[in-house]
Amino acid sequence: MKFPAIEPEQLQRARQGEPAALDALLLALQAPVYNLALRILGRREDAQDASQEILLRITTHLASFRGDSQFSTWAFRIASNALLTARTKVRETPTVPLDALADKLDHGLRLAQANERPLEPADKLAAERIALACTQGMLMCLEREQRLAYVLDIAFGLDSETAATVLEVEPATYRKRLSRARQRLDDFMQQHCALVNPQAPCSCERQALALPAGVNDTRKAESELLALTRLADAAAVFRAHPDYQVPQRVIETVRAVLQQHTGGWQ
């Protein structure tokens, strides 16, 4: 996902409090902010709450943007700082080892073996959901600082200098965090995940056999799963993830709060 280009004139109007410009800025920011929040926090409800807070921080602190960096860098910094300290409704345990996830996958494979049957069309949809949930689960096994470094690189394509500026660390520190995150996920997926290593024991289709039968509309699921299969490494799998759609209530809540300060939307 790329951060949208914000025209200087639009940004200036938003800084002056023009409602239409503020709304246009919200519409441009909501997708990258929500996608970042969801990948870092892991739960949609937490991501919605965090996105609303981040969007409000950005739009109500526009006067503090001095223009000594790209606007996207400034906005990412606000989002990253908020997400590093964001509270979640379910207690987060970032030190859960990847071994614990491996145990869950092994349990699913045992259930699949016990429920052995031919694959059904609905299993394709289940496999796509499993692929997204499982890879997100891998991210959640990283500590937040490593997770954020990884997501800024993989999902948003920030170079090391920009990402370091966002996180307010030295580039060497950022690269070290990113390298450690990559190594952990690469090693795990090479050992366990058939999306990366066809010889690995665990596949999304096998895990789907451990679940009850799902719905039958599988066309989108087949295309999404195909995009994730037989990729070179963990990074390629995460880059192939589809973007998440932003719930409408995120921007509606932010609009309602801002409306109290602007007196309405044009």
UniProtKB/TrEMBL annotation:
Question: The RNA polymerase sigma-70 region domain covers which part of the protein?
Answer: 28-89
- Sorted alphabetically, which keywords does the UniProt record give? DNA-binding, Sigma factor, Transcription, Transcription regulation
Q: Which domain of life is it from?
A: Bacteria
Q: Which GO terms describe its biological process?
A: DNA-templated transcription initiation
Per UniProt, residues of the RNA polymerase sigma factor 70 region 4 type domain are 136-185
Recall the GO molecular function terms of this protein's record. Answer: DNA binding; sigma factor activity
PANTHER family, alphabetized: RNA POLYMERASE ECF-TYPE SIGMA FACTO, RNA POLYMERASE SIGMA FACTOR HI_1459-RELATED
The family this protein is said to belong to: Belongs to the sigma-70 factor family. ECF subfamily.
Q: What is this protein called?
A: RNA polymerase sigma factor
